[in-house]
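[recover] target loaded
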């Protein structure tokens, strides 16, 4: 009774077709794979300890010894950039996973129950959406304090409302479908209908948006770290590295340029991959 309909998650053949039609998606996939590998094997790849200070070599420009130069404490920029990849991917992935789970549950419940409950929930979500993502994240992070856990919570909260809206729209349509009505006729409860019949038929939309919003989460993490509300120093993060580079922009351009490029490449990879996933679940594309 819970057979997938047209909006079911894309099959491997659909993914291959989408990647074949969108050649840039291979670039995104390759970039993301490299970034993930760098994060996993950071201790093996980084040439120096990212926390090791060498005042004698402070603010050294890129050279054979320090490929991306050193910062104002003499720490190797390349090593800090590599370890910063771990922070960005961890924060982005966990925050989006939390937001996707909670937001999808809220959206499905609101869309299925409908009525006054739906109006109240959507009204609260509209209030959250009225705040710019960065401003809302800044407010929450400032209240919770600077730490990795609080940063993840702050970013997750900012992304719950968009996920809830994405999940609600198909739920309203799906709950009128014949296979859902048949489930009710057989005596299935609301929890089973939402979890077994509705969720599998709209999860693909949510997954696609998660890849795109993970890019947004990484940008938000960098922005909060830039203003001092991210992971406390001396832990290397791309946002804190850019802040230090901004303070020394006239004397040490490499401090801000290289972490900015890292953010750019990561966001680009996620967006290109998200486009391919979106094409893979497009019913018109799969019908061709």
């Amino acid at each position: 009774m819970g057979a997938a309909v047209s909006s079911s998650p894309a099959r491997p053949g659909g993914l291959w077709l989408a990647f074949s039609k969108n050649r840039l998606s291979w670039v995104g996939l390759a970039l993301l794979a490299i970034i993930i590998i760098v994060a996993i094997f950071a201790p093996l790849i980084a040439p120096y300890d990212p926390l090791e200070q060498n005042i004698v070599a402070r603010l050294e420009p890129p050279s054979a010894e320090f490929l991306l130069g050193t910062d104002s404490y003499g720490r190797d920029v390349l090593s800090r950039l590599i370890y910063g990849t771990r922070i960005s991917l961890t924060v982005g992935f966990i925050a989006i996973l939390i937001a996707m789970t909670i937001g999808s549950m809220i959206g499905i419940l609101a869309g299925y129950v409908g009525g006054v409950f739906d109006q109240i929930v959507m009204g609260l979500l509209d209030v959250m959406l009225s705040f710019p993502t960065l401003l809302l994240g800044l407010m929450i992070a400032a209240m919770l304090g600077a730490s990795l856990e609080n940063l993840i919570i702050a970013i997750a909260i900012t992304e719950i409302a968009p996920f809830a809206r994405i999940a609600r729209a198909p739920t309203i349509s799906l709950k009128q479908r014949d296979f859902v009505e048949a489930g009710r006729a057989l005596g299935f409860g609301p929890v089973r209908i939402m979890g077994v019949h509705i969720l599998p038929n709209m999860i693909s939309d949510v997954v696609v948006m998660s890849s795109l919003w993970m890019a947004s989460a990484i940008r938000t993490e960098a922005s909060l770290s830039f203003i001092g509300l991210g992971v406390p120093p001396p832990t290397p993060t791309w946002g804190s590295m850019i802040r230090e580079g901004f303070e020394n922009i006239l004397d040490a351009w490499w401090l801000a340029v290289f972490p900015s490029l890292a953010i750019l490449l990561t966001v680009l990879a996620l967006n290109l991959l998200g486009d391919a996933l979106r094409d893979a679940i497009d019913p018109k594309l799969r019908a061709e």
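[recover] notes: Residues 12-50+236-288 form one domain.
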